[in-house]
Write a structure and sequence with these properties.
By secondary structure, this protein is α+β, with helices and mostly antiparallel strands. The chain has two domains: 4-104, Orthogonal Bundle (Helix Hairpins), CATH 1.10.287.40; 120-451, BirA Bifunctional Protein, domain 2, CATH 3.30.930. Helix content is 38%, strand content 19%. It is built from twelve helices and 18 strands. Strand 14 (387-389) and strand 15 (397-398) form a beta hairpin. The relative contact order is 0.14.
């Protein structure tokens, strides 16, 4: 979150950031007025406490001097001051709570490099990679959802039976490909210096608030033991929407040392999101679903190094797509597409050619976001109370947090099924994944299972 001091001293910058994001429903003036009232009450309370302390010291002197009348007057005044101070503290606590509530609604201030814009159409393309010699594919690429069902590696119908819409089964080589991708990514990032974690999957409300998922995006998350239309409290649990939440919060209220930084963690987890604001988009297939796997990269760095670390972080995520031979592009997000907690974000989007009649990034297909690499600066650190000491004898300061997906497994699978598709309906396994699939070079499919498959090509 933004500190009240920052908003107080830089209200114009806060308003500029809100304007770049296209947000007009946050009242900065109310924050400033609430902060001013709180500070006035705190100052008044300090003055009264000082007066009461002086009176308390005089009471003993008056009693020692035998002036009981003045001593009694001082006692009565001390009691009056005590009641007044308690009333002021109660009002100050109410204002402090209201101020925190208001600040939790304010997104991070975008960096100066963030371009203005309303949505992803206004993002700036930084580079394209892998289009110099595109792979020869079929004249018409079959979408992954149709191909996956033909090969009997994707099963949407049984996923709906078990869990409802937005869930699916991976079967046979589909499941093997998923596991291969996860292990491959973990190995790539371990060689980049990442320490591996496997965090808890349920996370509490405090952790969700710490990284910015709450209170803004409660409707997008799966709550355990409650309903999203009821107020949450710190005892509630949520299914992990991204490993960013548990990994960042593992250092809540802690102080790191400068010589421990940068601290780089990676974590594979299943993730769960309702995608409440995305109804009607990508309704078929596994691009937008409620459960998906991801390898998350989380960095803790000194503030002076965070922008350079962000550029390196993008490269660390890109390395996965480079090794897989998948074409992609990197974009700098505009203000309107920036996430709530981010000060600057790069998206990495893999190109997937389904529905093409011709092969090429400018003649069809679509971009699939597989990673968002973000610098949150001190925004998350303030929320969770995470500091570092530049030197062991120096005062602790808030550090900067960054994260990126390295990368979203399901969407990379989509790209592989479509980009590495062959005219005969098989799929070539990228060379980098073959060691993780016992040397298998092609996905050729499986026989259907069950009576319902008899009329769908099953051999009798």
């Amino acid at each position: 979150m933004l500190s009240r001091q920052f908003v107080r001293e830089h209200p114009g910058e806060v308003r500029r950031g809100l304007a770049i994001r296209g947000i007009d429903d946050i009242d900065v003036e109310e924050i400033l007025e609430t902060d001013e009232q709180w500070r006035e009450l705190k100052s008044r309370g300090d003055d009264l406490r000082h007066e009461r302390n002086e009176i308390s010291s005089r009471i003993g002197e008056l009693k020692q001097a035998g002036d009981e009348e003045k001593a009694q007057e001082a006692i009565e005044r001390s009691q009056e001051l005590k009641a007044e101070i308690e009333g002021i503290e109660d009002r100050a606590d109410d204002l402090d709570e209201r101020l925190t509530e208001l600040l939790l609604q304010v997104p991070n201030v975008p960096q100066a490099e963030v371009p203005p814009g309303e949505d992803e159409l206004d993002n700036e393309e930084v580079r394209r990679v892998g289009f110099e010699e595109p792979r020869d594919g079929p004249d018409e690429v079959v979408p992954h959802y149709d191909l996956g069902e033909r090969l009997e590696i994707l099963d949407f119908e049984r996923g709906v039976t078990v869990s409802g819409g937005g869930f699916y089964f991976l079967k046979g080589d589909g499941a093997r490909l998923e596991h291969a991708l996860v292990q491959f990514m973990r190995d790539v990032h371990r060689k980049q210096g990442y320490r591996e974690l496997f965090p808890p999957i349920p996370v509490n409300s405090t952790s969700m608030t710490g990284t910015g998922q709450l209170p803004k995006f409660a409707d997008d998350a799966y709550r355990v033991g409650g309903h999203n239309d009821e107020p949450y409290d710190e005892d509630d649990l949520w299914l992990c929407p991204t490993a960013e939440v548990p990994v960042t919060n593992m250092y809540a209220d802690d102080t790191l040392l400068a010589d421990e930084l940068p601290l780089k963690h990676q974590a594979y987890t299943p993730n769960f999101r309702r995608e409440a604001g995305e109804h009607g988009t990508e309704t078929r297939g596994i691009v937008r679903v409620h459960q998906f796997n991801k390898v998350e990269l989380v960095n803790f760095v000194e503030p002076a190094n965070s922008d350079d670390r962000l550029e390196e972080l993008v490269g660390e995520a890109e390395a996965v797509l480079d090794r897989l031979g998948l074409p992609y592009r990197v974009t700098l997000l505009c203000g309107g597409d920036l996430t709530f907690a981010s000060a600057r974000t790069y998206d990495i989007e893999v190109w997937s050619p389904a529905n093409d009649m011709e092969y090429g990034p400018d003649r069809g297909g679509r971009w699939l976001e597989v990673s968002s690499a973000s610098n949150f600066e001190t925004f998350q650190a303030r929320r969770i109370g995470l500091r570092y000491r530049p030197e062991r004898h120096e005062s602790a300061e808030y550090l900067h947090t960054l994260n990126a997906s390295g990368v979203a497994v399901g969407r990379v699978m989509v790209a592989i099924l479509e980009y590495y598709q062959n005219p005969d309906g098989t799929v070539t396994v990228p060379e980098a994944l073959r060691p993780y699939m016992d040397g298998q070079e092609r996905i050729e499919g499986h026989e259907p299972v069950g009576e319902a498959a008899v009329g769908a090509g099953r051999k009798e």
